[in-house]
Amino acid sequence: MPVEEGVYGLLAEFNTPGAMVHATEQARAAGYRRMECYTPYPVEEAATALDVHHTRVPLLTLMGGLMGLTTAFLMQTWMSAISYPINVAGRPLFSWPAFMIPAYEWTILFAGLSAAFGMLALNGLPQPYHPLFNAPNFRTGATDNKFFLCLEAADPRFELADTRAFLEQFHAVSVVEVDL
Amino acid sequence: MATKPISEPLRHPVNDPMIDPRTGEFAVIAPGHNFASVTQKISNVVLTSHTPLGWFFGLIAAAGVLTMMIVAITWLVLRGVGIWGVTIPGAWGFAIVNFVWWIGIGHAGTLISAILLLFKQSWRNSINRFAEAMTIFAVCCAGLFPVLHIGRPWLGYWLFPYPNTMNIWPQFRSPLCWDVFAVSTYATISVVFWYIGMVPDFGTLRDKATHPFPKWFYGLLSLGWRGSTRHWMRYETASLLLAGLSTPLVLSVHTVISFDFAVAALPGWHTTIFPPYFVAGAIYSGFAMVLTLAIPIRKFYHMEDLVTLRHLDNMAKVMLGTGLIVAYGYGTEVFFAWYSASHWEWFMMWNRMFGPMGWGYWMLILTNIAIPLFTLWWRKLRVNVTYLFILSLIINTGMWFERFVIVVTSLYRDYLPSSWGTYRATKWDYMLYVGTMGFFTFLFLLFTRFAPMIPMNEIKMMLPQAKLAGGLDAEETVEETA
Prior knowledge:
Chain A: It holds the Pfam family ActD. Chain A: The chain crosses the membrane at residues 59-79, 99-122. The complex is a heterodimer. Chain A has helices at 17-29, 44-50, 57-83, 96-123, 136-141, 160-168, and strands at 7-14, 35-38, 147-152, 174-179. By secondary structure, chain A is an alpha+beta fold. Chain A folds into 2 domains: 7-54 and 130-179, Alpha-Beta Plaits (2-Layer Sandwich); 57-122, no CATH class. In chain A, strands 2-3-1-4 form a 4-stranded antiparallel sheet. In chain A, helix 1 (17-29) packs parallel to helix 2 (44-50) and helix 3 (57-83) runs antiparallel to helix 4 (96-123). Chain B is mainly alpha-helical. Helices cover 67% and strands 0% of the residues of chain B. In chain B, 48% of the residues are buried. At the A-B interface, helix 1, strand 2, helix 2, helix 3 and helix 4 of A face helix 1, helix 5, helix 7, helix 15 and helix 16 of B.
């Protein structure tokens, strides 16, 4: 594998989302797999080009929600009917319809926290250091108005000169090496 | 919406860039923006080294009012709830009125950020961030009241189910306990939704900041966000799920709050119309509060091209719709009081309208129904910024009167004339209520200064440049920009 020591990848900068998506599609067609697009706002087409639409966030959310529902329901049942039973005006100790409201709230609470923190965990955030932040044009543009495609050195097809030539054919504003 | 033919006489000046000459519709955001200008316009408010003088004046004024709240709370803690006007039978006074009012105001924020997101209403993008901030600060204000109302606020944590040596648990069959769950969940999820929404924008601020401290500060808050497509996809899924979860949450919170009333066997409270009617009222007052905040902010920070007349018009339409539901609720209350043939219920309604506190009821009808619902039908008024601002204050007052009427006029004269009483708020009640407005404004001013008040990434999605024209004709797009 002709990976250069100390290179994370080649970063191509584009002015428009269309140019970036086009380059991404071509790179994928050329056999590159380890790559990523960086955009200031979500670009649906880039996700299609990279084929990364599938996420596990909904599954985590569902699991969180079910956990919240079960926890709250069992907790209330145990507290009201087993741990400290109080007879209030002859109402049943296991008055499950009344327990549904806190259970419903905790379903949402646990599911929401799972969605948010699950998303962060799957994204590997917080991550203060990333090699891409070494590229000066990335720091000024990626969250503002530029569109980046990074072909990573870990890709078996990556070869510094060839990959650079490949990226340059797409009228990129610049193609820079990213230090590891 | 059908497109009008061009030959038809136009109601609007052709040269107005904010209006589509063919449809006469307002643009969602003003033309002429690009990605960089959006970033610059919004991040400049935060990253400028020159804080506007008006902001300082606002903050000092808000801090003054906030001091009043602190004094009121301190005295309350020292002397107890006896300093308030609450007595028997009027045991739920301003504390509950203000609690329901504040939490209702918060609801529009969640509605804008969640329900309108699910319905793909892209016009929400300019206003959702500060509407969410409004929600959180309103919930902060709301939360104070029940905690203070329990008399010994330092024991407020007893409401939570935690293992304790007293071996006693909350009463889960009580709506007051449900409130604890509903409101704490609502506050938590709102904060999470708000923060997650800001992470990419914090990334922008980190990259735009030049001074080391803001760079470090926003770097910390942005969690290392770098706009990777894989991240964006998970982020969008999570946002959508949070929106989907917040939607039933926001409906449930006010429903649970209405149960506090509806579960009591008291005339005027024991009503099945309460849950939907409370939710609609919450949205009504919440949108009014969004307008109260949005109109000065867009003026002060020159955001007229991002928060456009289209937004104000749409919000006014939502207010018209929810206001009609609220009016229907008032009508139903009166109808049920009469149709149920319940003596107590009808007496309550008669007393509410023509009793010693009847002025409150008619104020409510005037400010909540008569003024807004007869004027919002005219588009000229819906896009008249001054009128909308005044109207939003009127509706906020009206919704406060609604809560006052529900709480007080039901409680102070119930079944037995021998147990009748009255309710009069004391200066401490007023100080605490007005003080929370200072608290709210104080937090909101800090937010406008230190956080991106309009979501940059969501505005960028709406720009024409963001649409990939004709599929993916990359060559053409590149040439255009070259």
